[in-house]
Amino acid sequence: MKRCSIFLFCLLLGVGLQIVTVFAEEDPIHEKCINQQADPAPWCYQMEVEKIGDPDLCDNILNYWPTADGVHGQCLYQLALKNKDCSLCNRIKKADIRKMCILDVCKAKK
Prior knowledge:
6 helices
């Protein structure tokens, strides 16, 4: 039974790594930011997403860098400000950035 559990764990881990690798290879922003030296990769990614203006791409920050919730929040915050879109604030995981977004974007609309 123990061998079966270990085998299944290794199999799932291998499949997960393959999915992440394939996903990363198909993301030109990720490729650009991983290979540059000027800014840390998550911040580079955030700046590129801000230029593109697609808030769904902000979620990739957490896919690639799971501990970069502040960068993810800043990404959504900047796009919420730029587009005056209060709904983006609710997608921010980090509470202090979400609160700042609500104050700056949602309250400003009223």
